[in-house]
Amino acid sequence: MELQADGSKSWSVDTTGKIWKFRWMVKNLSGITDKKLYSEDFVVDGNKWRILIYPKGKDGDHLSIYLAVADSATLPSGWRRHAQFGLAVIDQIDRKTSITKVATHVFNAKEVDRGFTSFLSLAELHNPRRGYLINDACLLEAYVSTDTTTGLISHELIVKTDSAIGNEKTTITRPVEITAPSSSRPSFQIVDLEPEEPTKEDMNTFFTSLESALLSSNTVFSQEEAKEAWTKLEAALNMTPISFHDSREFSPLKLAFKILASVGCSSTNLTIEQKNKLLAMEESLKQLSDRAAKAVEDKNRLTAKESIKNTVTYNLECSLIRYKEVESEVKQVEQKLTALQEQVEEAQKKRESMLVEQKGIFKSSQKMKMELEALSKEWAECEAKAKVAEDEEKTVEAEWGRMKHFISSIKEDVKRALEEQYGGKEEQEDNKMLVPNNDFIDGPQPLEGRFTWTVENFSRLNTKKLYSEIFFVGGYKWRILIFPKGNNVDCLSMYLDVADSETLPYGWSKYARFSLAVCHQIHNKYTIRKDTEHQFNARESDWGFTSFMPLGELYDPHRGYLVNDTIIVEAEVDVSKVGDDWSHDSKKETGYVGLKNQGATGYMNSLLQTLYHIPYFRRAMYHMPTTENDIPTGCIPLALQRLFYKLQYSETSVATKELTKSFGWGTCDSFIQHDVQELNRVLSEKLEDKMKGTVVEGTIQQLFEGHRMNYIECINVDYKSTRKESFYDLQLDVKGCKDVYASFDKYVEVECLEGDNKYHAEQYGLQDARKGVLFIDFPPVLQLQLKRFEYDSMQDTVVKINDIFEFPLQLDLDREYGKYLSPEADRSIRNLYTLHSVLAHSDGAHGEHYYAYIRPTLSDQWFKFDDERVTEENVKRALEGQYGGDEELPQTNPGFSKTPFKFTKYSNAYLLVYIRESDKDKIICNVDEKDIAEHLRIRLKKEQEEKEQKRKEKAKARLYTVIKVARNEDLAEQIGRDIYFDLVDHEKVRSFQIQNQMPFNVFKEEVAKEFGIPVQYQRFWLWAKRQNHTYRPNRPLTHQEEAQSVGQLREVPNKINNAELKLFLEVELGPHSRPVAPPENTKEDIFLFFKLYDPYKEELRYIGRMFVKVAGKPMEILARINKMAGFDPDEEIELYEEIRFEPSVRCDHIDKTLTFRTSQLENGDIICLQKFSEVLRVECRYPNLPSFLEYVHNRQSEAEARVAEVKTDKLNGEE
């Protein structure tokens, strides 16, 4: 309700432009109950304005004041109005303390008012000591100018502009324009009028009358009063000036001066000159005392400032001391951070591994659930077949016995016949067996099975890892591998291992789905079981869970997992569907391709597939203007165009990294489940904004936008309030609703506002009312968000609602005479919808998973889009399978009760997409290449060709191995020039491209030709990557390995599919630097490399290598090291072990008195040495090796940062 002002007057002043002042006296302020209040309209330059206030505050405990456009509702579309304005709450006692605020704004249809929400606190407004509220009346003023000149209105102008009105009380009048003084002319003029020349007679008459008047007005004082006045004056002058000022005795002295000045001017009294001096002294006395007081005040101020200066100086000294302390503490913390960096990296690796493991669990759980559902449907049929099979088995056994008896009866006859024909000789062929005879089991092997392993004395196991016995499933050998104390984690680590991996032929591969479990020995339902699947091969012969369960939980005696120091471990292995998931070609099988999951982006993939399969939306995306200079990772429209193009024309699954990067996501965001509805809305808003001003503007609204009406209707009075809202999706309740129609009924359900919840109607006060929602129109594409998740206050977490919730193939929203529609809805539009997509969510003990069921052309054929995999599905699975709820399976195992077994269906729908029947021909339209921008087609086709070329090159590369051979000469050439840490840059050594089938011994002949080193003098070492990311020679090749092919040998050091083999060629030189046979290498020998650091030259160089005994000590080989370095045999040297370079330098001092084993030195380790000297610390910038390597590390880091900065600048420039 809008109230108007009463009791105000307006006027205006003019500076460089026009400034209009409007005054509004708001009476009875405390008694106003309305939330907001308007003043009367006033006009400035033909524009209507008014003041808007919130007496109790708009959003808090402050008075809120705004300037509002009074006639905004009647102005034409696109209107704009510029104004400078000031608002003031006037202090009616002292105008100088009035509260003023000034602003400039361009008013428009969306912003019809502008002002200050927190103008003045209500406590200050009602403070009786202030003059803001006098007799419950508040005086407000508004200053408005439409002039664009800045700075016209200010606080000074407001508080000084009051001369035209004063304090008079008036009623409202029309604004009056007056002219104020400008800076270029005086504000007023004073005109002096010259009188006529007076005569002497006139002057005598004037002064005679003046003297009489003065004498008659003078007061006659007594002699006693004069003496008393004189005494007071002498007493005052006997004081010091400051004492007189502090005594406040000036008022009595004024009377004393007056009495003394009244003494007559005869010869026996004071002269006129003395009187004048006496009168002048009155003012001088006060001025002198004031000056003395001010001088004392200035001196005191200096003293106070000096005290403050001393305090601040002291505080600064304390701050300096504390700064140095903090600086020292920061260095200590940085050292700790450096030490913790390795742990952080290891934790990140562990996290990535767990996320991959989690994804595997999701997939396997879903597939197992589907198999269980399929099994339940086939159970009765299989049971009947099993009964028939029992009879058939008996028949076969009987026939088998008859055949066996017949063969036995003719055995001797056949033997004699063979001897007669072949002279007693029986030629036999040796059959090659894939497994040793003692391990072979006759007969067919089951394709799935369970193995139970009881591990006793578990807490007393002192081995790092433990294998179970071998068991067979599908003809394969398997075993369980556990790490009782954890595989570098505080958890039990458990894996499934291919037991005979080392004896299997080259290129072997086995696919299996399996689960591992630690059994709960009291209640089986608490058994911890984890599922996954894996393609086992020579590089990855074991697979499982590094963090299976916390050791604290396992060892807890109250948990029930470790009983009598015994645990029970189970493995279930299934190889029945070997290769199904690996060989499935979605494009070939269905005509569609999937989207790759980045870690936890299944929810996004299902949404993107749904949007892609709305052809009208896809065509609109293709028509969005993009250019060949746009970068996909920085442009959402281009990223979506590229994604849709690949989904339409690619033969394999499509990656989404470009799109997520265009969202501004990093790698971590791809491993976080985001809200699907939020993603859908944010994406729609961004696309809607990008479409503005283009040929596809309004597409999002045309497809997805509907409107609803919120209403409140009073029951007993004629009053109704309505509000129209738009929506892109509707959130429907699942809990307490059996289907979509029940949820819509609940959505439009009427709520009664009565009792304490009555509605406050304007003009009618509190009233009983009905509140509800009805729909004005539905969009062509209707998105229904099912509220499957809610907050559980008892568990303090969000829980999923798996209740059954049905949804139809066809949805009629005109049912029951349009019960969901508002009166103003267009009834000519038929709101009959067909189901297009079902986005489903599955969760359970091992995580959650998202996928979508879609029928792209609205035909009877449904497809399931599960990340990369696309399969055909029937309508029952797409609809009924996603209702949720419980499902029953009959209990058919003998010896058990026939009570049906119930289990919760954790897979159910959370988003439904319907398309209106009358719009489906328009929405399910044809989209082909002509709808795609030419630059996009050319760009993507070129990328596709390049990708195909790389694929061919990669396929060709699989036939070859690149062998990179590093030699002593490479180390000597690179260390100290190209590299400082580690031994060699493998990109700069001699490489050979060798066919995989070539025997390695033949390759050694190639090396002999290249380097002139005879084959018998060559010894090759394998390089190994360590946990600290360094590469070092690890061990020499064995004779058996050198007899293998290059392809087989390549798989020995590689745990990833790498087409490279890195080797170090060891060549020993004898007399005259001729190659000789390498020395025998035993387990007691360590192969070490040596570098020399010169602090004076700041130089690091490679000086050689040698074998040492693991039980030996550095002090025993100092002479050999000195000779290698070119030093005297007895030169004192310092030794360091080079450990790591990233993320920080670590170079540890070596104790020469300890053994190499105690110092934990091994093959490939690097020892750095330098001369020992005390003067180095003074003479050299980097006196020891660690300080030099730290310097090199910092220099390289700065160089890398500069390169990165240049790349970033270049990239930004391209954008």
From TrEMBL:
SUPFAM superfamilies named among the record's database cross-references: Cysteine proteinases (SSF54001), TRAF domain-like (SSF49599)
The USP domain, residue ranges: 593-917
Keywords: Coiled coil, Ubl conjugation pathway
InterPro entries referenced in this protein's UniProt entry, alphabetically: MATH/TRAF_dom, MCC, Papain-like_cys_pep_sf, Peptidase_C19_UCH, TRAF-like, USP, USP7_ICP0-binding_dom
Segments forming a coiled coil: 278-392, 930-960
Superkingdom of this protein's organism: Eukaryota
Leader sequence segment: none
Residues annotated as domain MATH: 19-144, 448-573
PANTHER family assigned to the protein according to its UniProt record, in alphabetical order: MATH DOMAIN-CONTAINING PROTEIN, TRAF-LIKE SUPERFAMILY PROTEIN
Protein name from the UniProt record: Ubiquitinyl hydrolase 1
Organism annotation: Hibiscus sabdariffa
